[in-house]
Amino acid sequence: MHHISDEQRRIRLARRHLLTPALRTDSPVAVADAVVALHATDAATVFLSVCARLRTPNVAAVEKPLYEDVSLVRLLSMRNTLFTVSEALAPQVEASNARAVAAKERRTFLKHLAEDGKGLDERWLNDTEEAALAALTARGTATGSELSAAVPALRTKITVFPGKKYEAEQGVASRVIRVLAAEGRIRRDRPRGSWTSSQFRWTAAEPRPVLATAEAQAELALRWLRSYGPASEADLKWWTGWGLGQVRKALAAVEAEEVRLDDGSTAWVAPGDTAFEPAPEPWAALLPALDPSAMGWADRGFHLAAEHRAALFDRSGNIGPTVWWNGRIVGGWAQHANGEPVWRLLTDTGLDATAAIEEEASRLAGWVGEARITPRFRTPLERELTT
């Protein structure tokens, strides 16, 4: 069985995730494909992750594929989480994950409607959705509030979890919009405010090809192995949110190759992907909260020391902004109130690393400009650095 060392895993990460200066690109779509999918729960993360890998980072370069030619699309998909993927990969992600997520969103919402006791049923929901789509088509784009003003049914309120201690009254507009977006019938357009805002406008979406689930899962698994392999079944199961049976079927379908890691465990790579790779030039990176390079595996031991987890993760397992040196997470960063990036190393990396990290911090400050970034998921070190 072929052996792939932890050092080789770090080299692969650097090359395949476009993290060294020599491998940076001019294409945000190429960045998305290199990491398969960009975390998009926090709007700023997409911009920060992409620009860390662009030769010339700037906001407009990311806005164009998101809102003009729509070559990048947001999908509620893996682990019921919002991701941004290339339009070319979107049908596979939709079939392998997003379709099931959308079906669950609809079932859950219909259950809440039934429990409310006002007689709101599937027919009412269908009629409300059609009215919302008609209003959106007529306007071109609209915020949730603007749609509610145009469609009276969206101003309906229901009681969720009636009789429970956490019973609450909720408006239906956000739930209707969430279902329509999950099903790919509408998409997020430019936000109100700056690129860091999550208050999106909405617009109608073009339908995508309908693919078979098993074939789509195999293709997604292969793409993921090429970007993240070697990785274990547990890693792929965690990243996709699939059941273990689905993971094993997908690995078998692509004829994934088993390899041995430094700790003696086994993992998987894409067929034939076992060649030795030379180390790139030394590199540093400041990556945002939830960046794919930090969130791609369940077991991150090859690039993250266990003793650093408490400072860099929140209680739900979300990683905050990280500082990297030659394939390892060595610290964290935040944005000071004056806009400057501030960072702290959690391990001694030497003067060369410090100089490279300072250069990356200056590069980040240069394109972020006057924008202020507060991660949605705050971590202990990020909070400490901002205060």
From TrEMBL:
Cross-referenced InterPro entries: AlkZ-like (IPR009351)
UniProt keywords, alphabetically: DNA-binding
Sample GO molecular function, one term: DNA binding
Pfam families: AlkZ-like (PF06224)
Keyword DNA-binding part of the UniProt annotation: yes
Name this polypeptide is given: Winged helix DNA-binding domain-containing protein
